[in-house]
Amino acid sequence: MSGAGRATAAWIAVASAEHVRRGRAGGFMQVCHGKAAPLRRVRPGDRVVYYSPTDRFGGSDRLQAFTAIGSALPGEPYAFDMGGGVIPFRRDVAWWPADEVPIRPLLDRLDLTAGLRNWGHPFRFGLVQVSAGDFERIAREMKAAAME
């Protein structure tokens, strides 16, 4: 349990692998072009996995892989001044050692995507809550080592 009696939630966040690598290196997550509201849904202790449709932001390459996994740390989302007037919101995350894995072999095994012809549709919002079972399946595929 995290928060005031609230069960720990699991989330899939969406960003290019390039942006995910920056977040892993800095110990943070950022979603929806730096908006605060989606990050407020993620609470300390919640688990997060990143899905990266592409390697580079705005790129036409298709990566379609889970690229990072971890748990949200205590604290609230915070504004971060990147310079040049860019001030996105971030949330601190303890990233776990894990492998990147393609999503395609998992599509029929995830509650979120099983049986969906347009399986990418749920990812369009940038942050989607998923079942504990889906999170655990992805974590196993990524050979994630929880660091808590």
From TrEMBL:
Coiled coil: none
InterPro entries, per the entry: EVE_domain (IPR002740), PUA-like_sf (IPR015947), UPF0310 (IPR022996)
UniProt xrefs under Gene3D superfamilies: ph1033 like domains
Superkingdom of origin: Bacteria
A Pfam family of this chain: EVE
Residue ranges occupied by any EVE domain in the UniProt entry: 10-140
Family of this protein: Belongs to the UPF0310 family.
Entry protein name: UPF0310 protein AL072_04695
Biological source species: Azospirillum thiophilum
